[in-house]
């Protein structure tokens, strides 16, 4: 008998809201959080737009001294984890801390710390490099800082699979609870890579859209899509065994029932052209959940707004769901918040839970006319109110990483 795993808390820092409620309200209002980059001078850059987090003050979530010893990606994770823990009502003084773990990933860690200290190294020499450079920069520090802030002494891991990081992190936390390694896991992703080298690197790869129109910048599945827009933020959830949640009288938001992960083993940046790898991840997740494709009501697509991703993901959904692919509602949250890289899967998982709770599928904002061979229902125009029993959240990462999670409306 598999251990059932439920969601009891959620926290989010996003380009359209610094809490789950403000984020979800903005989603329902079709708010696009993309605008000109303010963090550095973009005069010499082809890409001038990003989806920045706005009005974030780390001192609202942690003491100033702790905040100074964390880069933005870690601060975002701690802030999201704090909201998730508060919603869950988990009282750590009543828990065995070695049974409460963390699985929060970041794709990149801190490019900001790296940039600052490479400049110091080049201009002033090695003796001037910040003694804290390494602990500020390395990408496992989001998980480490969350554990330190809240006294979580169980399994603490950082899955790094580029844009699939958040989804894999939640999936591995789900497995850890199923396997009995933990009663509770804080899981998700975090990222803050809107820096000169981050933007320059992705632009050189021709991955970013270089338009100057925020409303036409991140337009998944549209015929004019031309690259993604970098976002930032964090999405963290509290997962726990059903038994543990019931014993403490927790309010259950949804149930995690399936996780599938594969690799295309095809190309370092392009997904497999027939969508086979991503399809197999969805198939594995459905098998794990013990359901047929017809049970799926909604797919939160990876939907990056690049030509390759949206086309090949469409093929993957058709392969995995067969005829049912034409009946399922699909959308891309990235149409509003851009691509949060390692945090995308965390925030999009939260979107699935909110969609189930509210019975609402948000539109793919900015989708005007579907691209060639993008011929499924991507929720164009307005959102749709409907009953959602099962939702899939997909993430595909550079390196060929594919991950799918299935969230279910909770029933006894």
TrEMBL record:
Pathway participation: Lipid metabolism; fatty acid biosynthesis
Alphabetized SUPFAM superfamilies for the sequence: Thiolase-like
Active-site residues, record numbering mapped to chain: 163 (for beta-ketoacyl synthase activity)
GO molecular function: 3-oxoacyl-[acyl-carrier-protein] synthase activity
BP GO annotations: fatty acid biosynthetic process
Ketosynthase family 3 (KS3) domain: residues covered: 2-409
Catalytic activity of the protein: a fatty acyl-[ACP] + malonyl-[ACP] + H(+) = a 3-oxoacyl-[ACP] + holo-[ACP] + CO2; (9Z)-hexadecenoyl-[ACP] + malonyl-[ACP] + H(+) = 3-oxo-(11Z)-octadecenoyl-[ACP] + holo-[ACP] + CO2
PROSITE patterns in alphabetical order: KS3_1, KS3_2
PANTHER family with a match to the protein in the record: 3-OXOACYL-[ACYL-CARRIER-PROTEIN] SYNTHASE, MITOCHONDRIAL, POLYKETIDE SYNTHASE-RELATED
Job description of the protein: Involved in the type II fatty acid elongation cycle. Catalyzes the elongation of a wide range of acyl-ACP by the addition of two carbons from malonyl-ACP to an acyl acceptor. Can efficiently catalyze the conversion of palmitoleoyl-ACP (cis-hexadec-9-enoyl-ACP) to cis-vaccenoyl-ACP (cis-octadec-11-enoyl-ACP), an essential step in the thermal regulation of fatty acid composition.
Protein name: 3-oxoacyl-[acyl-carrier-protein] synthase 2
Native organism: Candidatus Enterocloster excrementipullorum
Encoding gene, per UniProt annotation: fabF
